[in-house]
Specification:
The protein is mainly alpha-helical. Helix 2 runs antiparallel to helix 3. Helices cover 51% and strands 3% of the residues. It has helices at 12-17, 55-79, 83-115, 132-137; strands at residues 30-31, 35-36. A two-stranded antiparallel sheet has the order 1-2. The protein is elongated, with a radius of gyration of 21 Å.
Length: 138
């Protein structure tokens, strides 16, 4: 019997935002700021399937960059502050918004990977698997 059937399905977004195990929803997913644990302390799920790579980083850089750049441009052209004001405003804002958001995004992507049983795509030679177009033509 599959181990997935022993555990009730978890909502990937709720367990991901809480950085909890995608199978049981109990054990911690991350240790430290962004390091994925080797396995769940509650159910023993091996997190080796985790292959989110730079996905969370890209989402956060694009979203947070858009938001902070917009706010920085507004402040610059409205108040004309000296450069040190921008450093005092935006460096803490980026860190305060980026790190927690990165943890949550990483948790959600790992939980979605588990929930959808996602694996890296592979290409097969054309001769061994006919395409849909070839099947429809006959």
């Amino acid at each position: 019997m599959s181990e997935r059937k022993l555990y009730p399905p978890q909502d990937p977004f709720s367990v991901g935002l809480k950085c909890r195990c995608p199978r049981c929803g109990e054990g911690a997913l991350l240790s430290g700021l962004l390091t994925v644990k080797p396995s769940c302390s509650a159910c023993g799920l091996d997190y080796a399937f985790n292959d989110v790579g730079d996905g969370p980083t890209v989402f956060i850089i694009m979203g947070l960059g858009f938001l902070v750049l917009g706010m920085a441009l507004y402040v610059e052209f409205t108040f004309f502050p000296p450069p040190w004001v921008h450093v005092l405003l935006w460096v803490p804002a980026i860190l305060a918004l980026g790190i927690p958001t990165m943890r949550m995004t990483k948790g959600v992507l790992i939980a979605l990977t588990y929930a959808n049983d996602a694996h890296q795509g592979t290409l097969t030679p054309e001769s061994s698997s006919p395409s849909k177009h070839d099947q429809n033509a006959s």
